[in-house]
Amino acid sequence: MKNIINTVNAPAAIGPYSQANMANGILYISGQIPVDPATGKLVEGIEKETHQVMKNLEAILTEAGMTFKNVVKATIFLKSMDDFAVMNDIYASYLDADSYPARETVQVSCLPKNVDIEISMIAHQD
């Protein structure tokens, strides 16, 4: 059985998808972009964007009764690999070094709303 996870503390979906779906104890979180859910506006600059994306992901995890410790896989999309080091430091600051998820980071030519970063995650209930 699939359970749709939705919270007002993360941006509403901008297309025909859910913020996240829970199925058999696995949470599949849709790609999050740096939209501030309180204002509906984009934040700008890779530092602010990465923090906002991680806050959005955290809000969805919280709604599902999880934390970043439950995350088993992350996929990061960057518009420029020149932003990798800055993004990586901020991303790591939200995680526990004893439970880093598997991950890939890829550079893409364009992202929704022309943002610099998008991150999706998969988490598992303990």
Quaternary structure: single chain
CATH fold-type name: 60s Ribosomal Protein L30, Chain: A
What is the averaged pLDDT score? 97
- How many domains? The number is 1
Organism: Chryseobacterium angstadtii
Family: Belongs to the RutC family.
Pfam families: Ribonuc_L-PSP
GO cellular component, one term: cytosol
Would you kindly provide a written description of the structure presented here, covering whatever features stand out?
It holds the Pfam family Ribonuc_L-PSP. One of its GO terms (molecular function) is deaminase activity. The chain has a single domain, classed as RutC-like (60s Ribosomal Protein L30, Chain: A), CATH 3.30.1330.40. 22% of the residues lie in helices and 29% in strands. The protein is built from two helices and six strands. Strands 1-2-3-6-4-5 form a six-stranded mixed sheet, with helices on one face. Helix 1 runs parallel beside helix 2.
